[in-house]
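Lecture notes, unit on binding sites. The following record was shown on slide 14. It pairs a sequence with tetrahydrodeoxyuridine.
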Amino acid sequence: MKTITFGIDYKEYSSIEEMDPQDQALVKEAIEALKGSYAPYSGFNVGAAVRLEDGTIVRGSNQENAAYPSGLCAERTAMFAANSNYPGKAMVSLAIVGGFNRQVSPTPCSPCGACRQVMAEYQTLGGKPLSVIMFGTEKAWKFDRVDDILPFIFDSFNDK
Ligand code: THU
């Protein structure tokens, strides 16, 4: 038996201006996406934007439903739309913003476990690292690949 320790590197920003121009643009798309959020039950609005390898940006927002489990998170809305409309194009970056009353919160918006699992699948499918930006107006984080936010990913492709 041995004990193994591992760590991850990620970037922390204290304002959008500190980010790369491409990342700033993606965050702004996620903020735009927030306008389409339909969240009458939780009141928590989430916007996401995914950039494909050719620069195409696809937006998504959370969509709730009176039958609660029928709703969907912003990230999965964006990723499912991206792979539906642009199959075969790798997803290379995903930005997430959230907050109540369509206001972007000061702290980073962190994706749920189910969305992380879906990110992992599309990262594998695309064959390129998919970076994840969790944005807040006073603090934002960037992770270079999905593995960094979902260690020990379940990936059935691993067996192939
Ligand atoms: N939500 C997202 O859109 N993304 C996440 O990763 C976490 C949660 C949504 C689902 C629901 O509409 C609302 O936020 C409150 O949970």
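Take-home: The two ends are 29 Å apart (CA to CA).
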